[in-house]
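Human: Here is a favour to ask of a fellow structure person. Comparing notes only helps if you start from a blank page. I am asking you to supply a protein in sequence and structure-token form. Write it directly below this note and I will take it from there.

Assistant:
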Amino acid sequence: MYQQQESVFNSLFGEVTEAKSLLEQVALVCQGREEMYRVCLGAIHRYVEQDLKAGLGKDPAQILSARPMDDPLEIILYLTRLVYVI
């Protein structure tokens, strides 16, 4: 039981660390692009609320099989990739 709780804690800590890094990268990439910055921050907010907070009590298989069509992380990846192409 303890190992399972430790594994969940470590996974959550890793997700939060990645989200923090993503927020820092979005701040750098979106400098001077106010509308894009707003969209990316909204997507990060949805990711934290829907995936990190709401997913804590759910079965991992259920979460993975019911991915939304407008995944917040996919939106951020798409928008930031466009910046590097342009």
